[in-house]
């Protein structure tokens, strides 16, 4: 659920299934005299918010989302670098990542919109659109509200402009180069480096494994308590790369309440439920038609196909291990029919 750092268009031709031209025209407009919030523009998309809602205006219509739902989704799109595949903020608005360029759409993954001819999509350079998104989440997040945290661990996003919380919205996700805890890599979480145990994981043992490496291998052999590490996550629904073997990425995460987006895959994605439960609503990636409901309990394993979107619900903070093949070649191989969109056929 997290592409390797440093991947960009230089690694290959950028796919453009819709054949869209690159759109320009970005603007950050002065703060509104009443609400205090700035408004933003990228191409024909215009964004503004008031005390309760965020609005997306396009030539084909305006779409309205509650400010909390919009900011939680925007936070993930920013932190994940548009993620892989599609980030549906809800059933109407979202982005699709082509790794260097991004399609931003209104209704293009919603069958009702497309059948009525009300969908709208434009294509952007990823870095230009990301700059607008970062400014938007910074300006629209008030003091005391953390769109990355669980609802019980944050404030509320409502009201007129009231300060900011740039410390929260500028968090960088963990991306180990080899493995958490190795010398020179991302460190194990502790109280001392700002990661206390979450209230829901007070019973998780915090002892660490002992490693007795043979002489000469002290920097090659390591181990850490993954459950202890996840129990100290300060955010939810934010998969982090914790171990890397070539294109094989282990991306564990802790989950509470609702995945703020409907994530549309562009490759298969494996889930192993480590603790507690998650219910997944699975839909067709292109139309949004329901496909399945999956109830995962500790020890369960499932694989999400490459042509679906999914959204999870976790009543108690749970631990999930996500595994993916991070090769940038896979999405285009699937689009060309040279790779399957399922992990196994029975």
Molecular structure report:
- By secondary structure, the chain is of the alpha+beta class.
- It is 14% helix and 30% strand.
- It has helices at residues 67-79, 111-115, 126-140, 166-169, 226-231, 330-335, and strands at 26-29, 39-42, 45-49, 53-58, 61-66, 86-88, 93-97, 101-106, 120-125, 243-245, 248-258, 262-264, 269-275, 278-284, 290-296, 301-304, 308-325.
- Strands 6, 7, 8, 9, 10, 11, 12, 13, 14, 15, 16 and 17 form a 12-stranded antiparallel sheet that branches.
- Strand 3 and strand 4 (53-58) form a beta hairpin.
Offer a few descriptive terms.
single chain, 346 residues, alpha+beta, five-stranded antiparallel beta sheet, globular, disordered N terminus
Short description:
The protein is built from 6 helices and 17 strands. It has helices spanning 67-79, 111-115, 126-140, 166-169, 226-231, 330-335; strands at 26-29, 39-42, 45-49, 53-58, 61-66, 86-88, 93-97, 101-106, 120-125, 243-245, 248-258, 262-264, 269-275, 278-284, 290-296, 301-304, 308-325.
Query: How many helical stretches?
Result: 6
Radius of gyration: 20 Å
Query: How far apart lie the N and C ends?
Result: 25 Å
Rough outline: globular
Amount of helix: 10-25%
Main β-sheet description? 12 strands, antiparallel
Rounded mean pLDDT score: 93
What's the SSE pattern? EEEEEHEEEHEHHHEEEEEEEEH
* Class inferred from helices and paired strands: alpha+beta
Instruction: Please tally the β strands and state the result.
Output: 17
């Amino acid at each position: 659920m997290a592409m390797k750092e440093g991947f960009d268009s230089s690694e290959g031709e950028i796919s453009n299934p819709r054949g869209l031209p690159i759109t320009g025209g970005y603007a950050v407009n002065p703060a509104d005299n009443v609400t205090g919030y700035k408004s933003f523009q990228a191409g024909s998309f215009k964004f503004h918010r008031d005390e309760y809602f965020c609005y997306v205006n396009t030539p084909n219509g305006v779409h309205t989302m509650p400010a909390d739902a919009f900011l939680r989704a925007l936070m993930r799109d920013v932190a994940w670098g548009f993620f892989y595949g599609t980030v549906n903020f809800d059933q109407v608005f979202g982005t699709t990542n082509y790794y260097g360029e991004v399609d931003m759409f209104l209704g293009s993954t919603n069958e009702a919109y497309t059948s009525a001819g009300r969908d709208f999509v434009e294509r952007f350079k990823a870095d230009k659109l990301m700059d607008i998104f970062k400014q938007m989440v910074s300006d629209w997040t008030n003091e005391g509200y953390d769109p990355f945290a669980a609802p019980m661990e944050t404030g509320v996003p409502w009201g007129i402009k009231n300060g900011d919380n740039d410390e929260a919205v500028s968090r960088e996700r963990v991306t180990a180069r080899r493995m958490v805890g190795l010398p020179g890599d991302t460190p194990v979480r502790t109280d001392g480096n700002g990661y206390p145990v979450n209230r829901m994981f007070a019973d998780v043992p915090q002892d660490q494994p002992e490693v007795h490496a043979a002489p000469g291998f002290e920097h090659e052999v390591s181990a850490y308590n993954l459950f202890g590490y996840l129990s100290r996550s300060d955010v939810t629904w934010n998969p982090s790369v914790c171990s890397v073997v070539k294109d094989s990425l282990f991306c564990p995460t802790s989950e509470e309440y609702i995945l703020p987006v409907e994530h549309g895959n562009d490759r298969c994605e494996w889930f192993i439920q480590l603790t507690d439960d998650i219910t997944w609503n699975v839909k067709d990636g292109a139309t949004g038609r329901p496909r399945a409901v999956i109830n995962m309990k500790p020890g369960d394993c499932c694989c999400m196909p490459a042509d679906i979107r999914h959204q999870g619900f976790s009543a108690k903070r749970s631990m999930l291990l996500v595994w993916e093949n991070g090769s940038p070649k896979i999405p285009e191989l699937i689009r060309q029919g040279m790779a399957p969109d399922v992990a196994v056929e029975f």
